Amino acid sequence: xxxxxxxxxxxxxxxxxxxxxxxxxxxxxxxxxxxxxxxxxxxxxxxxxxxxxxxxxxxxxxxxxxxxxxxxxxxxxxxxxxxxxxxxxxxxxxxxxxxxxxxxxxxxxxxxxxxxxxxxxxxxxxxxxxxxxxxxxxxxxxxxxxxxxxxxxxxxxxxxxxxxxxxxxxxxxxxxxxxxxxxxxxxxxxxxxxxxxxxxxxxxxxxxxxxxxxxxxxxxxxxxxxxxxxxxxxxxxxxxxxxxxxxxxxxxxxxxxxxxxxxxxxxxxxxxxxxxxxxxxxxxxxx
Length: 287
Fold this sequence. Notes:
globular
């Protein structure tokens, strides 16, 4: 699994903005490479999407490389949320230019961008950072502004779907300090590693653990609450049968993938959380 490599090797000091940015870029590549990944684009197929493929994602990732470095530097410089938001908006424009108007990484620009900024802020004192330090920096520096952002009327499909279905939006999740990431996804990563899982099986275990609990507005947008509940039931069944450690896990995940494609379901929020976990591992914030 590529996320296990460190951009500059193992280091005990605080990561630089350049190192943080490179780790974020690698995390997006690692998320893309995972297959099966139910309903989502991978190097194998386009999942439930007809307007994008792996090449579209690679173009997007290349266009976003500088963004993650810039927003990490802004975080280290105690930038306001408005400055972070403008940086993200500029990155979104570059993404759309690179993909011909296709939204490949809007969620990652938001969530992973915030984590890069928080990692930059947490590492400003020169000490090695842990996941808890990054979460604390996110809440302390931009929590109030993120909460205010939640009061804006949503204009994007995911936000509209979250409001319509009574779900916790990505904005609200960020304002709360990304509880699903820090309280579910990262523990799932640790438990998977402790049980001996590595590579695609570790990532698959983490993906299904996220799918089981996240209010994924992309699922709600494409399939309504019925689609979200179906996806969660599939994730629950995956664990009831033994999770990613069993011999049949990969075959089972491919079957779930085919079912999601048939229903047009795409858990993009789960993909963002998986990339976030890969990023935190990549900068040494988790084991």
